[in-house]
Design goal:
Elements: E1 10-14, H1 20-33, E2 39-41, H2 56-66, E3 69-74, H3 82-90, E4 100-105, E5 119-121, H4 125-137, H5 157-163
Parallel strand pairs: 1-2, 1-3, 3-4, 4-5
Helix pairs in contact: 4-5
C-alpha cells in the first residue's frame, strides 16, 4: 500500500489491550480536534478503523504501512510490550514510507528502543500543549502532506483551547 496525499492521513494508535479505554480517549480527542480530517486506526474500538475479519498480523501490517503517524500509548513498564514494539518496528522497516512516531508517555520510563523518539508526557499540560500545537499546525506532521490539519496558527488561542482539558 502507498500513502495518498489526496485522502485523509491515517493515524495508527498502538496500545496494550488493557489500555484500550485510554487509547480511545486519545482517538476521540484527535478525531474531535482534527474535525474528522484524520482517519484513525484503533484495533480495540469499533468506532474507528481496525482489523475486522482479516488475519490480525496482516491487517496490522497493512495499516501500519499506510499510516503516516503512529501514536504509541505507553503506560506500565511491567507489561508485555512486544506487540506494540512489533507495530513500531513495522514502521521502521527498510523501504517503509515515512511515519511520524508520537510516544505518549503515561509512565515514568519508556522502553529502551524508543528512547530516541519524540515523546510527550501525557501527564503534563506543557507536553500536551506541545503535541496539540504540532498536530494541529505543523505542515509536515504527516510526512506525505504539505498542509496542516487545521489552519490554526502555532500557539494561537485555538490551539490553547484545544489543548486544555475542557477543550
Amino acid at each position: 500500500m502507498s500513502k495518498s496525499s489526496e485522502s485523509e492521513p491515517l493515524f495508527f494508535i498502538s496500545h496494550k489491550h488493557a489500555d484500550k479505554e485510554l487509547a480511545e480517549v486519545f482517538a476521540d480527542f484527535i478525531n474531535k480536534q482534527s474535525g474528522g480530517r484524520v482517519r484513525l486506526y484503533l484495533s480495540s474500538s469499533w468506532k474507528y478503523e481496525g482489523p475486522r475479519f482479516d488475519n490480525l498480523n496482516t491487517a496490522l501490517t497493512n495499516a501500519l504501512w499506510e499510516a503516516e503517524a503512529l501514536l504509541l500509548v505507553y503506560t506500565q513498564a511491567d507489561q508485555d510490550w512486544s506487540y506494540c514494539m512489533y507495530e513500531w518496528g513495522v514502521t521502521r522497516q527498510k523501504g517503509s514510507p515515512p511515519t511520524r512516531t508520537v510516544l505518549f508517555q503515561c509512565a515514568d520510563a519508556v522502553p529502551a528502543p524508543l528512547g530516541d523518539e519524540v515523546r510527550y508526557n501525557a501527564r503534563t499540560e506543557e507536553d500536551t500543549r506541545k503535541f496539540v500545537n504540532s498536530f494541529l499546525t505543523d505542515k509536515h506532521f504527516f510526512p506525505a502532506r504539505e498542509d496542516s490539519v487545521t489552519r490554526f496558527l502555532p500557539h494561537s488561542d485555538q490551539v490553547k483551547s484545544a489543548s486544555s482539558i475542557e477543550g
